[in-house]
Amino acid sequence: MVRQWPERQQRFASHREVADLVARIGRSEAAREMLTELRKQIASYERLSAELSESDVLHTCERNLRLWQQWLASGGEPEPAALEDLRASVRARADGGVPLEDLLHAYRIAGRLGWQILRRHAAPGEQHVLLDAAELLMLFIDALSEVVTQTYLAERERLVSEEERGTRALVERIVDGTPLSTEERALAARLDVPLRDRYVPFAAAIPGASPRRHAALAARLRGEGRLAVTEGDRVFGLALTAPAVEDLGEGPQALLARADETPRAALACAREELQLLVDHGRSAGLSGVLTPASHALELLLARSPRVATALCERVLDPLVRGGEGADLVHTLRTLVHCGFDRARTSRALHVHRNTLGYRLNRIEQLAGLDLAQPRDVACVYLALAAEQRAA
Fold first, then answer.
1. pLDDT, tens digit, 9 for 90 and up, residues 328-387
2. Is 48 left (phi over 0), alpha (psi -120 to 50) or beta?
3. What phi and psi values does residue 259 have, to the nearest 5 degrees?
4. How far is CA 387 from CA 43, 297, 298, 314, 382, in A?
5. Fold of 304-390
6. How far apart are CA 82 and CA 375, in angstroms?
7. In the chain, is it the N or the C terminus that has fewer CB atoms within a 10 Å radius of its CB?
8. pTM score > 0.90 for this model?
9. d(Cα 390, Cα 384) in Å, to the nearest integer?
């Protein structure tokens, strides 16, 4: 509902004269002239079907001309029924995929053409009426544009919500391996997603972005032939081919976790892994493409939080209790960051190699480790990864 229709026409002593001028204009001829101009200037109107162009767009133009005449004559808000007719037309445009900017552009074009038509129908002695008509026309176009914008956005949000709910049910059934209903098969056809026995599952996140932005991302991916739904601050989806980060359209900071092509029987497990992988990527400040194979250790920890906690306690707690905790944990973290290269680690810490050797010996003594043994090296790496994940 528009907040308030402008009543500034009450200022004009000649506003009824403007209404009389408008009444002399043949609405059908003016509407056809407007349709011709809209087709020339707006591509989406040219793509409309012939039936819709002739019956619906012409009706819309005639209705708006009639609405303007009523508004001028009454000096108040249009009848609710007239506005509901306008809203129904806008909803139809939104359902048909006509962009909002094209609709608003159409009203601007109609306003300019309406002014030209007024000038053609004005008598030589009605120049003062034309001056008032110009401002009144702009006020009317502004008011209609507000109704159009509010109605369009509400309709698109409703459509996205319904589509999201339907897609969510479809994704759940595909992942669970349960039979699909007729409605879900129809939705898959409408989204142009073939029903297969295997899909490429993926999860995506935009660091720091709101759930609303993730919902918009999911809607955009659905429009490109992928089954995508929101999960709060991330998106989960199924595709026929592996998506790329560029497909998200969210820049290099976007995070995309994806698996290989997976049979339906294994999609539930793959979905859980990708959700964990996205969470890990966010906590580690990663971006780009992540795969389960490239982050297998982190997935093992994420799937076994109790084991991860026990590993942290086993490796790190003794260092903290030893009185040199901060220095020793920082040393161990730097050692891992430098790939267990002691020369690089000493340079990174700005300490002599002997000092580094002393610290590493203390770590081994306190934690009961042998940093020359691959198994203990793996424990250190996993313990620090678990600590980072818990932070």
1. 889 999 999 999 999 999 999 999 999 999 999 999 999 899 999 999 998 898 888 888
2. beta
3. -110, 175
4. 56, 13, 11, 12, 9
5. Arc Repressor Mutant, subunit A (1.10.10)
6. 77
7. C
8. no
9. 10
